[in-house]
Write a structure and sequence with these properties.
Chain lengths: 167, 137
């Protein structure tokens, strides 16, 4: 099967931008960092497309995305941890009354987001790529440059940790 | 008893291979602990998958478009200086040059490139985004 490959970075942004943003948000836990990460990823895509070799585009794209995230983590290692922001509250506040905002805060995944942020990065990344982005184990393995067995283990252990955190 | 616990998540994700599925299902039939694990993993998986899908913040992609990407990052200082000179020349030229009498298709493509990138219905044509430091043609 011939893979359809986006030819321009604008097309990559249009087709994958929202997925990359959701991946970034669930990994970082805040909108500002997710915003910065998406920009960094798109810049890397723009630079990298010139030398892109036909293959698994998704694997290539998500490898770029995770590497951008890991690079940012390394850069910020000595900075203090930013607490989880109340982005959901802020977004909802414009259109909802306080009771709805509180309901949304509880039901729209704030506790799940917090639990995700408690996971070690390798587990968090695997769970998010699987359950948020919707990649297969093989695609996750390509993105993370690890065997599929490692992906399987990371996803299961990540979910087990989340179960402990959510109970 | 050996508990094939790592098969549980892979089973939920449809990622088991070979006879792993029958092996797991056979085990689940006799192991209450793994059956409970299956239910709990299912609930966690469903919870993460039910997280709201966030829309891209407005302007995120056009902002990325506006950023100048150095072609050779190790020459960043020189590229930056060259970019500043080019920008100055363009600014001066835009002051002393009268506006064009008509607008060409290329002008429209350039002006509305950002919108075209966000709105596939806007234009089927490829949008060429000039990158400072690269040949324009």
């Amino acid at each position: 099967m011939v893979e359809s490959i986006p030819l321009t970075w604008e097309e990559v942004a249009r087709v994958y931008g929202r997925k990359i943003y959701n991946f970034a948000y669930r990994l970082t836990g805040n909108a500002d960092d997710a915003h910065d990460l998406v920009q960094e990823v798109l810049l890397r895509v723009r630079r990298g497309l010139a030398n892109y070799q036909p293959g698994s585009f998704e694997g290539w794209l998500w490898r770029i995305t995770r590497n951008a995230f890991l690079d940012e983590i390394r850069k910020r290692k000595r900075r203090p941890t930013t607490p989880l922001p109340d982005e959901i509250d802020r977004w909802d506040a414009a259109t909802s009354d306080p009771a709805d905002v509180e309901y949304a805060r509880i039901t729209l995944g704030d506790d799940i987001q917090k639990a995700l942020l408690e996971l070690p990065i390798e587990f968090r990344e695997a769970v998010v790529l699987c359950d948020v982005v919707g990649l297969s184990y093989e695609e996750i393995a390509q993105a993370a440059s690890v065997p599929i067995g490692t992906v399987r283990s990371r996803i299961h252990r990540g979910r087990k940790m989340m179960r402990e955190l959510l109970t | 008893m050996t508990h094939p616990s790592e098969l549980i998540s892979a089973y939920l994700d449809g990622e088991l291979i070979g006879d792993e599925t029958s092996e797991l299902l056979s085990h689940l039939g006799t192991c209450g602990r793994c059956s409970a694990d299956l239910e709990e993993m299912q609930s966690v998986r469903t919870a993460v998958r039910s997280l709201p899908v966030l829309e891209l913040p407005a302007g995120l992609v056009p902002e990325a478009d506006a950023v100048v990407v150095p072609i050779h990052r190790n020459r960043g200082v020189w590229v930056g200086a060259a970019a500043a000179v080019v920008a100055l020349v363009i600014a001066i030229a835009s002051i002393v040059t009268p506006p064009p009498a008509s607008i060409s298709v290329d002008d429209l493509s350039s002006r509305f490139g950002a919108r075209a990138s966000l709105d596939p219905a806007f234009s089927p044509a490829k949008v060429v985004v000039p990158v400072l430091g690269e040949p324009s043609e």
